[in-house]
Structure formats: structure tokens, C-alpha cells
Amino acid sequence: MKGIVPAFPTIAEAARLIATKRLSPVELTRMLLARIELVNPKLDAFITVTADRAIAGARAAERAVRAGRKGPLLGIPLAYKDIFETAGVRTTAYSRLLTGNVPERDAESVRRLSAAGAPMLGKLATHEFAIGGPAFDLPWPPARNPWDPRRFTGGSSSGSGAAVAAGLCLGALGSDTGGSIRLPAAYCGIAGLKPTPGLVSRRGVIPLAPSLDTVGPMAWTAEDCAILLDALAGLDPGDPASVAGPEVSYARSIASPVKGMRIGVLRQFYERDVPASPDVQRMMTASLAIFRSLGCRVEDATLPPVRDYNAVGRIIISAEAYAMHEANLKTRLSDFSRVFRVRVLAGGLLRAADYLAAQRRRTDLIATTARLFERFDALIYPATAGAAPMLTEQRPDDGFLRPLLTTVANVAAVPALVVCGGRTSAGLPLGLEIMGPAWGDAAVLRLGHHFERAAGTRSTRPPL
Fold first, then answer.
1. In the structure, what pLDDT confidence band is assigned to residue 5 with cuts at 50, 70 and 90?
2. Annotated catalytic, 81?
3. Is residue 292 helix, strand or coil?
4. Which end of the chain is more exposed for a tag (fewer CB within 10 A), N or C?
């Protein structure tokens, strides 16, 4: 197989070239490994590079293509957040407690992508046990933002966001408990989907707070996220929370028109609850105009305050994370990062009554959010109140101080996609969040895909 390797192909573009034998999976993988070697020292996006495994997977994919096999992920190099178990490859969750952890099996999501023919480039930086960050007192440094390495990538799928944006891999997996896929997507200018809970298996993924944990795709475009979701979605009998979900091809459905779709604007979220920067306000104004130009019906909508969703999410995350780690917190406290201790030890002060009250309030918020989706096909708002802050500006108690816009979808148990909505006057990306009803993953991906094409935000990569 011969041909010139494009510098920054999307999954969809690379798949078409591989299928027509104009792009060699081996040459594509070699190019990405060379880029990782050159760029990763500036970004610390990868904690482990599996070069031999990647080349072996690419060679197997190339043989399969020559034998006539087809598939949208065949020969597409991917990487995984380091809480996804990988057979024979260290999985640390960015914690001293797991420095020697080498799983025997792949996580179910990793297995499915490998079965689809995707070579594994390696494991990506995260924050300790996937709770917030960054921490500077761990054996590995935090990942840095490709648009400005002095800046935060968002947590905790930090390496996934940085690696995809910098073109070190064509796609990645992340996990999202309060925004950990969508925050890096927003700050790094990529697409990231938090699916409907149960749609993607969590088996083999180190948990943070099982009531809220989800697993989802991160890629340069919404279309690429849809391609990944096609391989990931589906019932896993080994995961008790797994649900079969709708029988739909997410990749094929994104091309359907969006004209006539009803979009609710949660203006209160970014004007009153979490006041957004002037850049974000301008991005939202421009985004609304784009959806109207696509034929969508755009109206204002209202939900309970962002702080209500965040109070519920913070109590559930703190209580469940403390319960998961209580034994080690009592015997190995100093082995955890300061950020982890600040964010998790508070869970030891919560009573059962507090936790149950939060779960009851969550039930109310799920029902309230679902009722609004009787009027709207999707709800939109910014993913963050501003562009990526400096790494050094992040505080260990930040999750308690400021509510996150992204936590709304976790508590409401609905899918949410972040795409790049525009950039600041300084060139930093800004994220637009599209939230849909439960099992409405196809609709949010379709809206994200049409928005990206109309907005033209996919033409510029970080200036590395």
C-alpha cells in the first residue's frame, strides 16, 4: 500500500484512504509515533507509548485490508486514558498506588476497538483516579494544552484532549463523571461525547463514582466520535449497568438534516448561574445564528440553577470516591496527591442521610430535565465560562468553589457533546455543549456535525 500520509487526517478521512489502499496503516502509525516522540515532551500527553504493539496492530490491519476486509476503524491508531485496563500494559490511574499494575485483560471498550482493527499507540495522562487536577506531586507531570503549553487541558481526560488536538492520535477514549471528557474537549478544541449512561460498557475502567461514571469517545470531529461510538455502543453482559440502547448507526445518522429541530438555549446558565466571559458570550451569539441558519427552531429554555446539579454531583462523587478509596486513605494517605486528598477526604464527613438526600434530589432533577426535552430536541450552552486557564491557577478545592456547567448532564443522566464553538481573540478554543434527552446520542452528534461544518472550526490545528 502506497500513498502520501496526510499530516492531520480525521478518522473518517483516514478510513476512506485505507479502504481504497491509498494510505498504509503502517505508514500512518509510524508518522504518529514520530510525532509523539517529537511533541510529547512538550505536552506530557502520553504516560506510556506502546510502539511495538502499535506497529504490530497496523501490520495486521494492512494484511486485513489486502485480504478484502473493510471497516471504519481498520488501521486507525488510537490511545486510551490510563484508567482503561490494557492487557500486558501498565495501567496506573496516575497514582503511586498502581505504579506496578499490569492488567491481564483489556477493558471491554478497548477490546471492542481492538477487534475493529484499531492499533493502540499507548496510554494517556489523566488526574489521579480521574478526579480533577492537576497535581504536581505525582511521579508524572500533568498534561499541557497544545494551544498554549502553559495552560490547563481540563480534567481528567487531560492527555486524551491534548493528544487528539495535537494530532498525536486520531481518537481516544476518556471517562466523564462531572465533565472529564467535555472539559478537555472544550479547552483543547476537539469533540468529546459523554454518552447516555449504560450505552458504553465501563467494565475494566477504574471507577471514580459509579453512580455518575460514563465512558466515551474523543476525536477531532463529531463525525469521528460517531464512528467510534458505533464500535463502542451495545450491551455488555459483564457490566451490570450496561443497556442495549437503540439500534442505530451513529455514523450514518449524522448526515440527516437538522432543519426543524427544536433547540433550547439555557441562557440562564451562562448569563446568571456561571457568568461567562465576553469571548464566550460572543461565541454563543454566533452559535445561535449558525443553528438558525441550519433551519433549527431556537428558543430560550430554563432548568433549575447549575448550583443545584453541582451540589448533588459533588456529594455523590465525594461519598462514592471516599468509599472506593477508604482503606488506602487510612493506611497510605501520603501516597495520594494533595489534590486527591482535598477532593476526596471530605467524603468521609458525609452522612448516609446526606448521600441519600442527594440521590433523591438527583431523581427530581432527572425528571425535571426530561420534561424539558418534551419541548426540545436538544439544549445548548457553553461548556465552560472561559478559555483554558493557566495550569498554575488551578486550586485543589476548585471543585467545591465553582460550579461546573458540564456536571448538569451527568446528574441528569443524559448525553452531552462538546464541539469547538469558536476561539477567543487570542486564538484559544471555546467549547459549545449540546445536551440531548436520554438515548438521544445520535441527535446530539448530528447537531454537532452540522454545526462544525457550518462554523468552519475544524480547519486550524494548534501551532506546535
1. confident
2. yes
3. helix
4. C
Helices (H), 233-377: 250-253, 267-268, 278-293, 306-331, 338-344, 352-372
Catalytic residue among 109, 157, 160, 180: 180
236 sits in which H/E element: none
Q: CB 281: neighbour CB atoms within 10 A? A: 15
In-domain check, residue 462: no
Range of the domain at 367: 11-455
Say if 6 falls within a structural domain: no
Choosing from 95, 109, 114, 156, the catalytic residue is 156
User: What would the grid cell of residue 260 be?
Assistant: 426543524
Q: What angle do CA 192, 197, 202 make, to 5 degrees?
A: 85
Which CATH number is 149's domain given? Answer: 3.90.1300.10
- DSSP readout, 9-33? --HHHHHHHHHTTSS-HHHHHHHHH
Active site residue 180: yes
Classify each residue of 437-464 as buried b or exposed e, where b means 16 or more C-beta atoms within 10 Å of its C-beta.
bbbbbbbbbbbbbbbbeebebbeeebee
Domain count, the chain: 1
* Within-domain flag for 31: yes
Q: Are 309 and 274 in contact (CB under 8 A)?
A: no
Report in angstroms the alpha-carbon separations of 24 from 14, 167, 347.
9, 17, 50
Tens of pLDDT, residues 78-111: 999 999 999 999 999 999 999 999 999 999 999 9
Kindly report, residue by residue over 131-181, the tens digit of the pLDDT. 978 999 999 999 999 999 999 999 899 999 999 999 999 999 999 999 999
Residue 3 lies in a domain: no
Distances from the Cα of 404 to the Cα of 81, 154, 400, angstroms? 22, 12, 10
Give the strand pairing for 262-265 and 297-300.
Answer: parallel
Give the chain's mean pLDDT: 97
Residue with C-alpha cell 498534561?
Answer: 143
